[in-house]
Task: structure prediction
Amino acid sequence: MNFFVIAPTNIFSDIPSLREKTVRVANLVRTLLIFRARGLILFKYGKEDEELYKLIEFFKIPSYLRKLVFKKEKALKYVGVAPPIRAFYEDSDFARYGFVIKSENGVSYVNIGLKDLVTINSIELKEKSLVKLIREKDEWRIARKEEDFLFGFEYYIIEDLVNYLSKVKNKENIIFATSRYGKEFSLEDLISLNNLLKIKKNIYLLFGSPKEGLYEIFKKLNKKIEEYADFVYNMFPNQGVKTIRTDEAIFGSLAILNLAVHKSI
Result:
């Protein structure tokens, strides 16, 4: 079972400070890695947030490559105050991110954070590009698509939420929307979901923005959320704050649903 998180691009629009945004984006990346989410899909909604995009890309990359991949720029000013990510793939000895240093004469030389560069024979990779490598029989090769899960979550920005949901709504997937106006999530729902996951492959978790929930967003799109989501649940029925931040809702929802995925209830 794979988790995919769908959220608006204005997920951090309530934060005036780049310093605070940096820390919260780092924590969002940590959340997705903690629960081994396979994808983060951001749908364009509200004001564009180039700082968000850059920070996600930065924190996804293993720390041993960041100075090679990124230059000093305003969006990355406070990355030093963010918590360490320490993703599971950082210390892997068989699946590593790499940065192509040089390609010539059919050989590519790649920095994968070890003492020496590794060589990829019979292929010239684009210099200064990021690659995913797998160690097989003491040699390194380019990772295959089906091995992407060894490198954390994929990250996408989409233009049309409704069109995307229409494509992923099928018999293999569950689209699970969260809203304070949804049905209160209960133990019985967790048990039902646990049984349903025996025949499903993916859960797509859909979240609103800090200022507008999913019902408000879909109303603006002239659509009804129930037409695109299999379930609409209130994951925090008795909440003790006026509003729950989207990144808080993502962590809490994944923590609850993780039980359904990995435990026999």
Notes: Helices lie at 18-34, 50-60, 66-69, 161-168, 187-196, 214-220, 246-262. Residues 218 and 253 are 21 Å apart (CA to CA). The two ends are 16 Å apart (CA to CA).
